[in-house]
From TrEMBL, chain A:
<dbReference type="GO" id="GO:0004605">
    <property type="term" value="F:phosphatidate cytidylyltransferase activity"/>
</dbReference>
<feature type="transmembrane region" description="Helical">
    <location>
        <begin position="178"/>
        <end position="200"/>
    </location>
</feature>
<protein>
    <recommendedName>
        <fullName>Phosphatidate cytidylyltransferase</fullName>
        <ecNumber>2.7.7.41</ecNumber>
    </recommendedName>
</protein>
<comment type="similarity">
    <text>Belongs to the CDS family.</text>
</comment>
<dbReference type="Pfam" id="PF01148">
    <property type="entry name" value="CTP_transf_1"/>
</dbReference>
<keyword id="KW-1133">Transmembrane helix</keyword>
<feature type="transmembrane region" description="Helical">
    <location>
        <begin position="206"/>
        <end position="232"/>
    </location>
</feature>
<keyword id="KW-0808">Transferase</keyword>
<comment type="pathway">
    <text>Phospholipid metabolism; CDP-diacylglycerol biosynthesis; CDP-diacylglycerol from sn-glycerol 3-phosphate: step 3/3.</text>
</comment>
Automatic annotation (TrEMBL), chain B:
<comment type="pathway">
    <text>Phospholipid metabolism; CDP-diacylglycerol biosynthesis; CDP-diacylglycerol from sn-glycerol 3-phosphate: step 3/3.</text>
</comment>
<keyword id="KW-0808">Transferase</keyword>
<keyword id="KW-1133">Transmembrane helix</keyword>
<feature type="transmembrane region" description="Helical">
    <location>
        <begin position="172"/>
        <end position="192"/>
    </location>
</feature>
<feature type="transmembrane region" description="Helical">
    <location>
        <begin position="99"/>
        <end position="118"/>
    </location>
</feature>
<keyword id="KW-0548">Nucleotidyltransferase</keyword>
<keyword id="KW-0594">Phospholipid biosynthesis</keyword>
<keyword id="KW-0812">Transmembrane</keyword>
<feature type="transmembrane region" description="Helical">
    <location>
        <begin position="138"/>
        <end position="160"/>
    </location>
</feature>
Amino acid sequence: LQESESENKLDGETASDSESKSEFGGSPPVPTSDDTPEVLNRALSNLSSRWKNWWVRGILTLAMITFFFIIIYLGPMVLMTIVMCVQIKCFHEIITIGYNVYHSYDLPWFRTLSWYFLLCVNYFFYGETVTDYFFTLVQREEPLRILSKYHRFISFALYLTGFCMFVLSLVKKHYRLQFYMFGWTHVTLLIVVTQSHLIIHNLFEGMIWFIVPISCVICNDIMAYMFGFFFGRTPLIKLSPKKTWEGFIGGFFATVLFGLLLSYVMSGYRCFTCPVEFNNDTNSFTVDCEPSELFQLQEYNIPLVLQSVVGWKTVRMYPFQIHSIALSTFASLIGPFGGFFASGFKRAFKIKDFANTIPGHGGIMDRFDCQYLMATFVNVYIASFIRGPNPSKLIQQFLTLRPDQQLHIFNTLKAHLVDKGMLGRLEDA
Amino acid sequence: VDLEERLGELDLRSDSDIPDVPPPTDSTPEILKRALSGLSARWKNWWIRGILTLAMISVFFLIIYLGSFMLMLLVLSIQVKCYHEIITIGYRVYHSYDLPWFRSLSWYFLLCVNYFFYGETVADYFATFVQRREQLQFLIRYHRFISFALYLTGFCMFVLSLVKKHYRLQFYMFAWTHVTLLITVTQSHLVIQNLFEGMIWFLVPISSVICNDITAYIFGFFFGRTPLIKLSPKKTWEGFIGGFFSTVVFGFIFSYFLAQHQYFVCPVEYNSETNRFVTECEPSELFQMKKYSLPPLLQAVLGWETVNMYPFQMHSIALSTFASLIGPFGGFFASGFKRAFKIKDFADTIPGHGGIMDRFDCQYLMATFVHVYITSFIRGPNPSKLLKQLLILQPEQQLSVYKTLKSHLVEKGILQPSLRG
């Protein structure tokens, strides 16, 4: 057993094949069609299949990372589009799995309704984002203004239509399956769509808040794999037999270090640290600002313990690097639970991969399963520890209040500022 | 074909696989049984339902009289009971496989989500109360982070509780819990938000749904002939349309009476000095009588040229229409759900009526609709929430906001530029 386990680990194949064999009495796993491009096939034809798989995965990994860098270079708008595409593809992959179960019973409207709900939820979220960030643009165009004023009502009406369609589509004898699929669609929306919008919010906060978390998760994946490959011995969790404690811990330390270095490099550039803003005059996104104090070098005293190790008394760091430690820690310790969740899901529905989109890696969902919790965490982290509310948004809300409410707020704010000593005798300031 | 066969293995092939739920026990109290022993079964059932309906309506009136705080507690209890009923149904399927932690995890998630929502509400409405206490300050400031951390713990517990060979069922139950939370807990918090807007926004929608239920039943009983939908064979088109018109008229008249009392019309506020809820204010223009000129068509019918109405009554028409036309879909959804899991009622809590869920299935969509309606058409943002956010800003930001506000107010003539006040 020891030998076959290590054989599986070296192969890079998931051990779910042997797992599923014992579970389901010898039924063969679903064969995945090999869509490795012909070019690669020929180039690697003389290697044994074990190393071939390793090379295919390696090449594709490099290809994806290169692609990631290109997109970053192209700017926020392209990034937003890519996030949107990834979200749609993930949703499609999950729904297809459900559909394979559902379709065998000739039940109507499942796919149409799922896509419709995806559209509704995206419309709702994009509407909220657009209203916040493109406020002046929206106010200028009359149809946009009406759409944004009654946005929630319109989204709700759209959702309700879908809900009523679902109720009308219920077919006798298959109610339970239909309700399961309804639940399936909604949980998928909750996971995939909400997270993708949180990613876009993080992006608007500054590209560094988008790049560092995603890179940490990717780094943790790769580092844990490497540490596991070379030093792996103790299995981590029954769900994913490939994972080991050595890989987990090694990956943790490597990721924290990587996060520190990456943030150091990125904090120096304005295009990464400034919030993304929409410039009304040029009708494009700009990233230009005075870097906040998070991104200004400061002297930190090294604690005595580390002083003897490292030999310096103080070190110059960006405060953001301290935050990056928190982000990397989350990516290494809790992020993998997203991966275990996805592994359990794949076991539950007896599939090896979500889809065959990326040769050697499986579907898009397979690559993004650890990212989900990360996006929510970063968003909550920013909202709790970094930024306060957006002042211009507050002013907009203020302008819609009634005069007596406006006066009340103004007076309370004034009293607060006088209290703090910001507004002394300078009444006319 | 291979994939489909293997995916179809678990209990999805047809609806006949789950263990049948034992028939509900008859929990009618002894007193009622003896009093009605002389009647035939059909009328007996009718009387039981009727008496319980009156009992529930009386409890409702009593709680309204007792005030907003009691109403909030009532809403919370109903939410917990509905959640419990739905989870129990799921548990019956789940339990047969001896799977761990489903109930604990479900209650834990309920606690987390409630903590999150109440934290957001409490922070908004009890701002002055909260400012005074240090520990609460800390909890409020990092509220989202704490809620997320609590939720994550539950998520990790779920992942660690996965048992080989039963993954699919466990994932279904996880989704079950989350969809239930989405439906019951979110809606109950929207109900409370509506309540804080003014008790009339809580009473009129709920009464319209109840009225629609009752009048549709009565119209169906006397005139029902054409079935409405296969899901609920008892419903008829005559009941549906009759219920619609009666509900609109009822809503109209009921709002007229409620709009006259400050107790119902004013937003609920928390008075930190007396530590109580107060409903006292200058009624907004929605609740001040206005003259409306009738369109010529109605003039001929009614014989009046103008009529004195509250603007709120126009809104009540929208609310009643929704309650009669779309509300029933919530009921059909619940009927479909009961068919799917082969249960007659959600539980046996109320004799003759079933569980609490059975009474509230039409209310769900209503609460969300009222909330969306209010935010879109009635009120603007919440002033105290806005104030709270202003006070969190950095001092330089506060100063610049202050200057912008001041110039705006001076421009509008609300503030005198030269005085100090």
